[in-house]
Sequence to fold (484 residues):
Amino acid sequence: MTRRQFLAASVLATHMKNPAPAPYGILPSERQLRWHTLEYYGFLHFTTNTFTDREWGYGDEDPAVFAPTDFDADRIAAVAHEVGLRGLILTAKHHDGFCLWPTKTTTHNVTLSPFRDGKGDVVREMADACRRHRVKFGVYLSPWDRNHPHYGEPKYVDVYREQLRELLTNYGELFEIWHDGANGGDGYYGGVREKRQIDRRTYYGWEETWAMARELQPNAVIFSDVGPDIRWVGNENGIAGEPCWATYDPVGEDGGPPAPGYTRWQEAPQGHRNRGRWLPAECDVSIRPGWFWHESENDRVRTPENLLDLYFRSVGRGGSLLLNIPPDRRGHWHENDVAALRGFKKLRDSVFGRDLARTATATASHVRAGDRRFDPRNLLNGKPDTYWTTDDDASNPTVTLTLKKPAPFNVVRLREYLPLGQRVDTFAIDIRENDGWKEVAQAEGIGSCRMVRIPTVTVDQVRLRIVKAAACPALTEFGLFAAP
Ligand code: FUL
Fold:
Protein backbone atom coordinates (compact mmCIF):
# COMPACT_ATOMS: atom_id res chain seq x y z
CA MET A 1 0.00 0.00 0.00
CA THR A 2 1.40 3.42 -0.93
CA ARG A 3 1.33 6.27 1.57
CA ARG A 4 -1.44 7.97 -0.39
CA GLN A 5 -3.55 4.80 -0.45
CA PHE A 6 -2.97 4.38 3.27
CA LEU A 7 -4.16 7.94 3.98
CA ALA A 8 -7.22 7.52 1.78
CA ALA A 9 -8.09 4.26 3.52
CA SER A 10 -7.79 5.77 6.99
CA VAL A 11 -9.93 8.81 6.01
CA LEU A 12 -12.55 6.41 4.70
CA ALA A 13 -12.37 4.38 7.92
CA THR A 14 -13.04 7.41 10.16
CA HIS A 15 -15.84 8.56 7.83
CA MET A 16 -17.45 5.17 8.30
CA LYS A 17 -16.85 5.14 12.04
CA ASN A 18 -18.06 8.73 12.54
CA PRO A 19 -20.72 9.28 9.93
CA ALA A 20 -22.10 12.74 9.21
CA PRO A 21 -25.51 13.51 10.74
CA ALA A 22 -28.54 12.27 8.87
CA PRO A 23 -30.30 15.01 6.87
CA TYR A 24 -33.29 16.51 8.64
CA GLY A 25 -36.74 17.22 7.22
CA ILE A 26 -37.45 18.87 3.88
CA LEU A 27 -34.33 19.31 1.74
CA PRO A 28 -33.30 21.68 -1.07
CA SER A 29 -32.65 20.49 -4.63
CA GLU A 30 -29.27 20.99 -6.29
CA ARG A 31 -30.81 23.77 -8.33
CA GLN A 32 -32.02 25.52 -5.18
CA LEU A 33 -28.65 25.08 -3.48
CA ARG A 34 -26.99 26.87 -6.39
CA TRP A 35 -29.57 29.64 -6.25
CA HIS A 36 -28.97 30.13 -2.51
CA THR A 37 -25.40 31.26 -3.26
CA LEU A 38 -26.55 34.18 -5.45
CA GLU A 39 -28.27 36.29 -2.76
CA TYR A 40 -28.31 39.60 -4.65
CA TYR A 41 -29.35 40.17 -8.26
CA GLY A 42 -31.22 42.71 -10.34
CA PHE A 43 -34.45 43.27 -12.18
CA LEU A 44 -34.75 45.28 -15.40
CA HIS A 45 -38.22 46.70 -15.98
CA PHE A 46 -38.06 48.10 -19.47
CA THR A 47 -40.70 48.34 -22.21
CA THR A 48 -43.11 50.82 -23.82
CA ASN A 49 -44.03 51.96 -20.28
CA THR A 50 -40.60 53.56 -20.06
CA PHE A 51 -41.66 55.88 -22.88
CA THR A 52 -45.33 56.39 -21.99
CA ASP A 53 -44.56 57.11 -18.34
CA ARG A 54 -46.81 54.32 -17.09
CA GLU A 55 -46.53 51.37 -14.72
CA TRP A 56 -49.08 49.10 -16.40
CA GLY A 57 -49.54 49.61 -20.14
CA TYR A 58 -53.08 49.00 -21.38
CA GLY A 59 -51.96 46.98 -24.37
CA ASP A 60 -52.82 49.55 -27.06
CA GLU A 61 -49.39 51.19 -27.13
CA ASP A 62 -47.98 51.85 -30.57
CA PRO A 63 -44.70 49.87 -30.85
CA ALA A 64 -43.26 53.03 -32.39
CA VAL A 65 -43.00 54.58 -28.94
CA PHE A 66 -40.32 52.08 -27.98
CA ALA A 67 -37.35 54.18 -29.03
CA PRO A 68 -34.36 54.07 -26.69
CA THR A 69 -31.82 56.57 -27.94
CA ASP A 70 -28.74 54.78 -26.67
CA PHE A 71 -29.61 51.25 -25.56
CA ASP A 72 -26.43 49.81 -24.13
CA ALA A 73 -26.70 46.34 -22.64
CA ASP A 74 -22.95 46.16 -22.04
CA ARG A 75 -23.02 49.31 -20.01
CA ILE A 76 -25.78 47.88 -17.80
CA ALA A 77 -24.14 44.48 -17.41
CA ALA A 78 -20.73 46.02 -16.69
CA VAL A 79 -22.13 48.10 -13.84
CA ALA A 80 -24.09 45.09 -12.58
CA HIS A 81 -20.87 43.09 -12.41
CA GLU A 82 -18.98 45.94 -10.79
CA VAL A 83 -21.54 46.39 -8.01
CA GLY A 84 -21.88 42.68 -7.24
CA LEU A 85 -25.28 41.91 -8.78
CA ARG A 86 -25.02 38.20 -9.58
CA GLY A 87 -27.71 38.21 -12.25
CA LEU A 88 -30.23 40.32 -14.16
CA ILE A 89 -33.84 39.44 -14.96
CA LEU A 90 -35.37 41.31 -17.89
CA THR A 91 -39.08 41.95 -18.47
CA ALA A 92 -39.16 40.26 -21.88
CA LYS A 93 -42.92 40.99 -21.81
CA HIS A 94 -44.84 42.96 -19.21
CA HIS A 95 -48.64 43.06 -18.81
CA ASP A 96 -49.07 45.33 -21.88
CA GLY A 97 -47.97 42.42 -24.09
CA PHE A 98 -45.17 44.18 -26.01
CA CYS A 99 -42.43 41.62 -26.67
CA LEU A 100 -38.85 42.87 -26.51
CA TRP A 101 -37.68 40.14 -28.87
CA PRO A 102 -38.72 39.34 -32.46
CA THR A 103 -41.22 36.68 -31.45
CA LYS A 104 -43.13 34.71 -34.08
CA THR A 105 -46.19 34.58 -31.81
CA THR A 106 -47.43 38.16 -32.21
CA THR A 107 -46.67 41.24 -34.26
CA HIS A 108 -46.85 43.34 -31.11
CA ASN A 109 -43.11 43.28 -30.73
CA VAL A 110 -39.85 45.09 -31.11
CA THR A 111 -39.65 44.60 -34.91
CA LEU A 112 -42.35 47.24 -35.35
CA SER A 113 -40.40 49.75 -33.30
CA PRO A 114 -37.69 52.15 -34.46
CA PHE A 115 -35.19 50.34 -32.23
CA ARG A 116 -32.29 49.20 -34.51
CA ASP A 117 -34.63 49.96 -37.45
CA GLY A 118 -36.89 47.09 -36.51
CA LYS A 119 -34.03 44.60 -36.61
CA GLY A 120 -33.25 44.71 -32.91
CA ASP A 121 -33.65 42.15 -30.15
CA VAL A 122 -33.39 43.54 -26.63
CA VAL A 123 -33.41 40.07 -25.07
CA ARG A 124 -30.51 38.94 -27.25
CA GLU A 125 -28.41 42.02 -26.55
CA MET A 126 -29.05 41.76 -22.82
CA ALA A 127 -28.38 38.01 -22.67
CA ASP A 128 -25.13 38.36 -24.63
CA ALA A 129 -23.93 41.33 -22.58
CA CYS A 130 -24.62 39.44 -19.35
CA ARG A 131 -22.55 36.53 -20.60
CA ARG A 132 -19.70 38.84 -21.54
CA HIS A 133 -19.71 40.44 -18.09
CA ARG A 134 -20.19 37.20 -16.14
CA VAL A 135 -23.62 38.14 -14.84
CA LYS A 136 -26.37 35.51 -14.94
CA PHE A 137 -29.43 36.19 -17.07
CA GLY A 138 -33.10 35.47 -16.51
CA VAL A 139 -36.46 36.42 -18.00
CA TYR A 140 -39.81 37.75 -16.78
CA LEU A 141 -42.73 36.80 -18.99
CA SER A 142 -46.05 38.20 -17.81
CA PRO A 143 -48.87 35.67 -18.09
CA TRP A 144 -51.44 38.46 -18.22
CA ASP A 145 -51.37 40.01 -21.69
CA ARG A 146 -53.54 43.08 -22.21
CA ASN A 147 -52.77 43.24 -25.90
CA HIS A 148 -53.51 39.73 -27.10
CA PRO A 149 -56.90 39.22 -28.78
CA HIS A 150 -57.17 35.66 -27.47
CA TYR A 151 -56.33 36.39 -23.87
CA GLY A 152 -58.80 34.44 -21.75
CA GLU A 153 -59.22 31.65 -24.32
CA PRO A 154 -57.30 28.34 -24.31
CA LYS A 155 -55.59 29.54 -27.50
CA TYR A 156 -53.68 32.23 -25.63
CA VAL A 157 -52.17 29.70 -23.21
CA ASP A 158 -50.54 28.04 -26.24
CA VAL A 159 -49.23 31.44 -27.31
CA TYR A 160 -47.80 32.05 -23.84
CA ARG A 161 -46.08 28.67 -23.84
CA GLU A 162 -44.69 29.32 -27.30
CA GLN A 163 -43.28 32.67 -26.14
CA LEU A 164 -41.66 30.95 -23.21
CA ARG A 165 -40.30 28.26 -25.50
CA GLU A 166 -38.67 30.91 -27.69
CA LEU A 167 -37.08 32.59 -24.69
CA LEU A 168 -35.92 29.32 -23.17
CA THR A 169 -34.51 28.00 -26.44
CA ASN A 170 -32.80 30.88 -28.18
CA TYR A 171 -30.91 32.84 -25.54
CA GLY A 172 -28.52 30.42 -23.89
CA GLU A 173 -28.59 29.31 -20.29
CA LEU A 174 -31.00 31.18 -18.00
CA PHE A 175 -30.68 31.19 -14.22
CA GLU A 176 -34.26 32.15 -13.41
CA ILE A 177 -37.71 32.19 -15.00
CA TRP A 178 -40.09 34.70 -13.46
CA HIS A 179 -43.89 34.47 -13.51
CA ASP A 180 -45.81 37.21 -11.71
CA GLY A 181 -49.29 36.71 -10.32
CA ALA A 182 -50.99 39.92 -11.50
CA ASN A 183 -54.19 39.65 -13.51
CA GLY A 184 -56.00 42.97 -13.50
CA GLY A 185 -58.87 42.24 -15.91
CA ASP A 186 -59.31 45.13 -18.30
CA GLY A 187 -57.25 45.66 -21.43
CA TYR A 188 -57.11 46.35 -25.15
CA TYR A 189 -57.29 42.67 -26.21
CA GLY A 190 -56.91 43.23 -29.93
CA GLY A 191 -59.17 46.27 -29.93
CA VAL A 192 -62.27 45.14 -28.06
CA ARG A 193 -61.25 47.04 -24.90
CA GLU A 194 -63.03 45.06 -22.26
CA LYS A 195 -62.60 43.34 -18.95
CA ARG A 196 -61.62 39.68 -19.04
CA GLN A 197 -61.51 37.42 -16.02
CA ILE A 198 -59.74 34.12 -15.90
CA ASP A 199 -59.71 31.43 -13.24
CA ARG A 200 -56.23 31.74 -11.81
CA ARG A 201 -56.34 28.19 -10.48
CA THR A 202 -56.91 26.48 -13.80
CA TYR A 203 -56.51 28.81 -16.79
CA TYR A 204 -52.76 28.80 -17.30
CA GLY A 205 -52.14 25.07 -16.81
CA TRP A 206 -48.94 25.83 -14.94
CA GLU A 207 -47.89 22.23 -14.39
CA GLU A 208 -47.57 21.69 -18.11
CA THR A 209 -45.77 24.99 -18.65
CA TRP A 210 -43.26 24.29 -15.91
CA ALA A 211 -42.63 20.76 -17.18
CA MET A 212 -41.65 22.34 -20.50
CA ALA A 213 -39.45 24.92 -18.75
CA ARG A 214 -37.67 22.14 -16.84
CA GLU A 215 -36.96 20.28 -20.00
CA LEU A 216 -35.60 23.32 -21.83
CA GLN A 217 -33.70 24.90 -18.93
CA PRO A 218 -33.06 22.25 -16.29
CA ASN A 219 -30.71 24.49 -14.30
CA ALA A 220 -32.99 27.52 -14.09
CA VAL A 221 -35.05 28.16 -10.96
CA ILE A 222 -38.71 28.90 -11.56
CA PHE A 223 -40.21 31.72 -9.51
CA SER A 224 -43.86 32.37 -8.74
CA ASP A 225 -46.15 32.77 -5.74
CA VAL A 226 -45.99 28.99 -5.40
CA GLY A 227 -42.56 28.12 -6.78
CA PRO A 228 -41.89 25.40 -7.87
CA ASP A 229 -38.35 26.48 -6.88
CA ILE A 230 -38.54 29.84 -5.16
CA ARG A 231 -41.43 31.79 -3.75
CA TRP A 232 -42.56 35.39 -3.76
CA VAL A 233 -41.98 36.78 -0.28
CA GLY A 234 -45.49 38.22 -0.15
CA ASN A 235 -44.65 41.94 -0.44
CA GLU A 236 -42.87 44.25 -2.84
CA ASN A 237 -40.82 46.00 -0.17
CA GLY A 238 -37.80 43.70 -0.25
CA ILE A 239 -38.42 42.45 3.28
CA ALA A 240 -38.58 38.84 4.42
CA GLY A 241 -40.44 37.64 7.51
CA GLU A 242 -38.82 37.41 10.92
CA PRO A 243 -38.06 34.57 10.80
CA CYS A 244 -38.30 33.46 7.18
CA TRP A 245 -38.26 29.66 6.88
CA ALA A 246 -37.02 28.17 3.64
CA THR A 247 -39.94 25.74 3.84
CA TYR A 248 -43.45 26.78 2.84
CA ASP A 249 -46.77 25.12 2.29
CA PRO A 250 -48.79 27.51 0.11
CA VAL A 251 -52.57 27.22 0.05
CA GLY A 252 -55.13 28.88 -2.19
CA GLU A 253 -57.16 31.90 -1.08
CA ASP A 254 -59.99 29.50 -0.24
CA GLY A 255 -57.70 27.09 1.61
CA GLY A 256 -57.63 24.69 -1.37
CA PRO A 257 -54.89 24.20 -3.97
CA PRO A 258 -52.86 27.37 -4.64
CA ALA A 259 -51.79 28.96 -7.93
CA PRO A 260 -49.79 32.04 -8.92
CA GLY A 261 -51.98 35.01 -8.00
CA TYR A 262 -54.17 32.79 -5.84
CA THR A 263 -52.56 32.19 -2.45
CA ARG A 264 -52.82 33.28 1.13
CA TRP A 265 -49.78 35.42 0.44
CA GLN A 266 -49.83 36.79 3.99
CA GLU A 267 -48.21 33.50 5.02
CA ALA A 268 -45.35 33.82 2.51
CA PRO A 269 -43.03 36.19 4.45
CA GLN A 270 -42.47 33.66 7.24
CA GLY A 271 -43.18 30.41 5.43
CA HIS A 272 -43.93 27.35 7.53
CA ARG A 273 -41.56 25.51 9.81
CA ASN A 274 -41.43 21.79 8.98
CA ARG A 275 -44.20 21.98 6.40
CA GLY A 276 -44.65 21.94 2.68
CA ARG A 277 -41.71 22.14 0.30
CA TRP A 278 -38.27 23.74 0.22
CA LEU A 279 -39.41 27.03 -1.32
CA PRO A 280 -37.13 29.85 -0.18
CA ALA A 281 -38.18 33.48 -0.49
CA GLU A 282 -37.12 36.01 -3.09
CA CYS A 283 -37.59 39.60 -1.95
CA ASP A 284 -38.35 41.91 -4.89
CA VAL A 285 -38.23 45.66 -4.53
CA SER A 286 -37.51 48.66 -6.73
CA ILE A 287 -34.71 51.13 -6.22
CA ARG A 288 -37.33 53.81 -7.03
CA PRO A 289 -41.02 54.14 -6.15
CA GLY A 290 -42.12 52.62 -9.49
CA TRP A 291 -40.97 49.50 -11.32
CA PHE A 292 -40.46 51.45 -14.56
CA TRP A 293 -38.33 54.53 -15.07
CA HIS A 294 -40.10 57.87 -14.64
CA GLU A 295 -38.35 61.18 -14.98
CA SER A 296 -40.28 62.46 -11.97
CA GLU A 297 -38.66 59.81 -9.76
CA ASN A 298 -35.03 60.60 -10.56
CA ASP A 299 -34.65 62.20 -7.16
CA ARG A 300 -36.40 59.43 -5.31
CA VAL A 301 -33.76 56.73 -5.65
CA ARG A 302 -33.05 54.71 -2.50
CA THR A 303 -29.92 55.58 -0.58
CA PRO A 304 -27.04 53.14 0.00
CA GLU A 305 -27.99 53.07 3.70
CA ASN A 306 -31.57 52.14 2.89
CA LEU A 307 -30.37 49.40 0.53
CA LEU A 308 -28.10 48.00 3.24
CA ASP A 309 -31.06 47.89 5.60
CA LEU A 310 -33.07 45.95 2.99
CA TYR A 311 -30.12 43.62 2.52
CA PHE A 312 -30.16 42.77 6.22
CA ARG A 313 -33.91 42.17 6.08
CA SER A 314 -33.84 39.97 2.97
CA VAL A 315 -30.49 38.22 2.51
CA GLY A 316 -29.97 38.41 6.27
CA ARG A 317 -33.09 36.30 6.76
CA GLY A 318 -32.25 33.62 4.23
CA GLY A 319 -34.03 35.16 1.23
CA SER A 320 -32.57 36.78 -1.88
CA LEU A 321 -32.69 40.47 -2.71
CA LEU A 322 -34.05 41.06 -6.21
CA LEU A 323 -33.44 44.75 -6.72
CA ASN A 324 -35.14 46.45 -9.66
CA ILE A 325 -33.13 49.12 -11.43
CA PRO A 326 -35.13 50.29 -14.46
CA PRO A 327 -33.29 51.51 -17.57
CA ASP A 328 -34.28 55.03 -18.65
CA ARG A 329 -35.28 56.30 -22.09
CA ARG A 330 -31.72 56.23 -23.28
CA GLY A 331 -31.66 52.52 -22.55
CA HIS A 332 -29.26 52.36 -19.66
CA TRP A 333 -29.25 53.11 -15.97
CA HIS A 334 -29.72 56.67 -14.78
CA GLU A 335 -26.71 58.28 -13.08
CA ASN A 336 -28.54 58.52 -9.74
CA ASP A 337 -29.32 54.82 -9.71
CA VAL A 338 -25.74 53.94 -10.62
CA ALA A 339 -24.45 56.16 -7.82
CA ALA A 340 -26.76 54.41 -5.34
CA LEU A 341 -25.64 50.97 -6.52
CA ARG A 342 -21.99 51.95 -6.19
CA GLY A 343 -22.58 53.49 -2.77
CA PHE A 344 -24.33 50.34 -1.62
CA LYS A 345 -21.45 48.20 -2.89
CA LYS A 346 -18.97 50.35 -1.01
CA LEU A 347 -21.02 50.08 2.14
CA ARG A 348 -21.34 46.28 1.82
CA ASP A 349 -17.60 45.98 1.30
CA SER A 350 -16.88 48.14 4.32
CA VAL A 351 -19.09 45.89 6.48
CA PHE A 352 -18.48 42.42 5.07
CA GLY A 353 -14.96 42.91 3.73
CA ARG A 354 -13.58 42.30 7.22
CA ASP A 355 -14.78 39.30 9.21
CA LEU A 356 -13.37 39.57 12.74
CA ALA A 357 -13.99 35.87 13.27
CA ARG A 358 -11.41 34.91 10.63
CA THR A 359 -8.54 35.50 13.04
CA ALA A 360 -10.38 34.24 16.12
CA THR A 361 -10.20 30.80 17.69
CA ALA A 362 -13.33 28.69 17.92
CA THR A 363 -14.10 26.19 20.65
CA ALA A 364 -17.25 24.15 20.98
CA SER A 365 -19.03 22.50 23.90
CA HIS A 366 -19.58 19.47 21.67
CA VAL A 367 -17.92 18.13 18.51
CA ARG A 368 -19.39 15.12 16.78
CA ALA A 369 -17.45 12.01 17.85
CA GLY A 370 -14.60 14.36 18.71
CA ASP A 371 -13.76 14.11 15.00
CA ARG A 372 -11.67 16.94 13.43
CA ARG A 373 -13.90 16.80 10.36
CA PHE A 374 -16.64 18.45 12.41
CA ASP A 375 -14.43 20.92 14.25
CA PRO A 376 -15.79 24.43 14.99
CA ARG A 377 -12.83 25.82 13.01
CA ASN A 378 -14.91 24.92 9.98
CA LEU A 379 -17.07 27.92 10.90
CA LEU A 380 -14.23 30.29 10.19
CA ASN A 381 -12.59 28.91 7.04
CA GLY A 382 -14.95 30.47 4.49
CA LYS A 383 -15.62 27.06 2.92
CA PRO A 384 -19.32 26.38 2.35
CA ASP A 385 -18.90 22.59 2.37
CA THR A 386 -17.21 22.13 5.76
CA TYR A 387 -19.25 22.43 8.91
CA TRP A 388 -19.33 22.15 12.68
CA THR A 389 -21.70 19.57 14.09
CA THR A 390 -22.30 17.61 17.27
CA ASP A 391 -23.45 14.18 18.31
CA ASP A 392 -27.13 13.59 17.74
CA ASP A 393 -27.99 13.87 21.42
CA ALA A 394 -26.00 17.00 22.34
CA SER A 395 -28.27 19.38 24.19
CA ASN A 396 -27.86 23.17 23.84
CA PRO A 397 -24.41 23.04 22.26
CA THR A 398 -22.38 26.25 22.09
CA VAL A 399 -19.50 27.65 20.06
CA THR A 400 -17.30 30.34 21.54
CA LEU A 401 -15.16 32.66 19.45
CA THR A 402 -12.18 34.25 21.15
CA LEU A 403 -10.65 37.26 19.41
CA LYS A 404 -6.99 38.20 19.78
CA LYS A 405 -8.09 41.40 21.49
CA PRO A 406 -11.43 43.11 22.14
CA ALA A 407 -12.91 44.58 18.95
CA PRO A 408 -16.18 46.35 18.19
CA PHE A 409 -18.85 44.53 16.18
CA ASN A 410 -22.62 44.68 15.74
CA VAL A 411 -23.46 42.04 13.14
CA VAL A 412 -23.34 38.27 13.55
CA ARG A 413 -23.67 36.10 10.44
CA LEU A 414 -24.53 32.41 10.61
CA ARG A 415 -25.09 29.82 7.90
CA GLU A 416 -26.41 26.29 8.11
CA TYR A 417 -25.08 23.47 5.95
CA LEU A 418 -28.19 23.25 3.76
CA PRO A 419 -27.74 19.74 2.31
CA LEU A 420 -28.61 18.54 5.83
CA GLY A 421 -31.74 20.70 6.03
CA GLN A 422 -32.87 23.54 8.26
CA ARG A 423 -32.16 22.11 11.71
CA VAL A 424 -31.98 24.96 14.19
CA ASP A 425 -35.21 26.42 15.59
CA THR A 426 -33.90 29.00 18.04
CA PHE A 427 -30.45 30.31 18.95
CA ALA A 428 -28.97 32.98 21.16
CA ILE A 429 -25.86 35.17 20.98
CA ASP A 430 -24.03 35.86 24.22
CA ILE A 431 -21.07 38.13 24.89
CA ARG A 432 -18.48 37.76 27.62
CA GLU A 433 -18.58 40.70 29.99
CA ASN A 434 -16.99 41.04 33.45
CA ASP A 435 -16.40 37.30 33.71
CA GLY A 436 -20.00 36.45 32.93
CA TRP A 437 -22.04 35.72 29.80
CA LYS A 438 -24.69 38.18 28.76
CA GLU A 439 -27.33 37.39 26.15
CA VAL A 440 -27.52 40.09 23.47
CA ALA A 441 -29.85 38.44 20.97
CA GLN A 442 -32.17 35.54 20.49
CA ALA A 443 -33.70 34.62 17.14
CA GLU A 444 -35.47 31.86 15.25
CA GLY A 445 -34.16 30.04 12.21
CA ILE A 446 -30.74 30.15 10.52
CA GLY A 447 -30.91 28.57 7.05
CA SER A 448 -28.72 29.72 4.17
CA CYS A 449 -27.80 33.02 5.79
CA ARG A 450 -28.81 34.64 9.04
CA MET A 451 -27.61 38.09 10.02
CA VAL A 452 -28.39 39.38 13.46
CA ARG A 453 -27.85 43.03 14.22
CA ILE A 454 -27.00 43.88 17.80
CA PRO A 455 -26.00 47.13 19.52
CA THR A 456 -22.24 47.65 19.05
CA VAL A 457 -20.20 45.79 21.64
CA THR A 458 -16.45 45.70 22.15
CA VAL A 459 -15.49 42.32 23.60
CA ASP A 460 -13.07 39.51 22.91
CA GLN A 461 -15.48 36.61 23.41
CA VAL A 462 -18.81 35.87 21.80
CA ARG A 463 -20.84 32.70 21.96
CA LEU A 464 -23.48 31.05 19.83
CA ARG A 465 -25.90 29.02 21.93
CA ILE A 466 -28.33 26.62 20.26
CA VAL A 467 -31.53 26.99 22.27
CA LYS A 468 -33.75 24.62 20.34
CA ALA A 469 -33.04 22.40 17.36
CA ALA A 470 -34.95 19.64 15.61
CA ALA A 471 -31.66 17.77 15.00
CA CYS A 472 -28.05 18.40 15.97
CA PRO A 473 -26.88 21.66 14.37
CA ALA A 474 -24.68 21.67 11.26
CA LEU A 475 -23.27 25.13 10.59
CA THR A 476 -20.77 26.35 8.03
CA GLU A 477 -20.26 29.92 9.21
CA PHE A 478 -20.11 32.12 12.28
CA GLY A 479 -18.95 35.60 11.26
CA LEU A 480 -18.60 38.94 13.06
CA PHE A 481 -18.79 42.32 11.39
CA ALA A 482 -19.02 45.99 12.19
CA ALA A 483 -21.62 48.06 10.33
CA PRO A 484 -21.64 51.87 10.52
C1 FUL B 1 -46.06 42.68 -10.41
C2 FUL B 1 -46.40 43.60 -11.58
O1 FUL B 1 -47.76 43.93 -11.58
C3 FUL B 1 -45.54 44.84 -11.44
O2 FUL B 1 -45.76 45.73 -12.50
C4 FUL B 1 -44.07 44.41 -11.40
O3 FUL B 1 -43.72 43.82 -12.61
C5 FUL B 1 -43.85 43.45 -10.25
C6 FUL B 1 -42.44 42.97 -10.14
O4 FUL B 1 -44.70 42.34 -10.40
O5 FUL B 1 -46.82 41.54 -10.45
